[in-house]
Amino acid sequence: MIQLNLETVQDWWEVEALYDLCFAPGRTALSSYRLRDGVDPIEQLCFTARDQDGILAGVIRNWPVYVGNRLAILLGPVAVHPTRQGEGVGGALMRKTLNRAFDLGWSRVMLVGDYPYYKRFGFFHLEGVEMPPPTNPDRILGYNLCPSAWTGVTGKVLPAPDCNPGGRPHFKGHDHEKPASTD
Prior knowledge:
Layout: E1 3-6, H1 12-23, H2 31-34, E2 47-50, E3 56-67, E4 70-80, H3 89-103, E5 108-112, H4 115-118, E6 124-125, E7 129-130, E8 140-144, E9 155-159
Parallel strand pairs: 4-5, 7-9
Antiparallel strand pairs: 1-2, 2-3, 3-4, 3-9, 5-8, 6-8
């Protein structure tokens, strides 16, 4: 049984290690990371998936962005540990995120990914939405959390200001320094 929970400050390094395992440490060179620089993820839309033993099986984080002058969620990255792939962990994280985003009143979600995978969640190709280069325009996908949320929304994707209540709570009390080894 997989348990989905909000990511906590205590999860931070373990989550980062899973992202490195799944995407390689060079992942931060991807164009989508330019939209995340200096902005915390949306605290209420970052989830961990753990098994009954507390082992991290998957994670998802989401960031606020502007498309033109309209606010949107930049979904991801979503990562599933290689030993847990094919068990529905990624799908559970996606559904949890989309449902929670709807509950929080967000209108639209976007991501950069493979359409054949994400179409099962209701994602579709976005036209006229410009991610930082180099991004293949065929991989820019959108999802309506309310009817027609993407209608007429075009333009460059830019970082949005931190939207967490109370400042930067996601990393509150976290100095971003890797803990010293206790070996």
